[in-house]
Amino acid sequence: MDEAQTAARQESLHKRILHLHQVEKLSQRQIAEKLNVGRKLVKKILNNSGSAKAIDRKTILEEYNNLVAHWYKEHPRLRATQVYERLKGYGYTGSYPSVVLLCRKYRQPKTVVYHTLNFLPGEEAQVDWFFFNHKTMGQVAGFLYVLAYSRYAWGIFYPKTTFEFFLAGHHEPKLCIRT
Fold this sequence. Notes:
Distance between the termini: 75 Å
Number of helices: 7
Number of strands: 3
Strand content: 5-15%
Largest sheet: 3 strands, antiparallel
Structural class: alpha+beta
Shape: elongated
């Protein structure tokens, strides 16, 4: 079989697959069984033909699009529920989820109110006191030392939270951590 015959066969198969899908409304599996070809081939031909693509339709919201854009220029933080209630006042009869989808393109993203802190190993640590009720000793103070990079935690108990124990808590981990 030469190249011309192969191309003609492929074109014929392509047309038959499209006919079975669009006219006879058969599924991809049914087409594959009828023509004795693989389902992946049928799927590939249907996807490449453009028959599986969605049709662009006008929505009810398109006539309110300019109005919603104007509202978001005046009030950038409007919620979709507020827009939906306003649109109902203008005679909108569509659904709320449609309004949510429309509002997504007008909503401004919230600004980040914190900065991510990045540390090198051993550059930064956090310390804090916590209290623990021991059965025989009563309340003891725990000193917790956490490295910011690795989140390695180290702790020790002291009888009080005075300054001398605070300094001792900072000095202890240096004795335990090997470099």
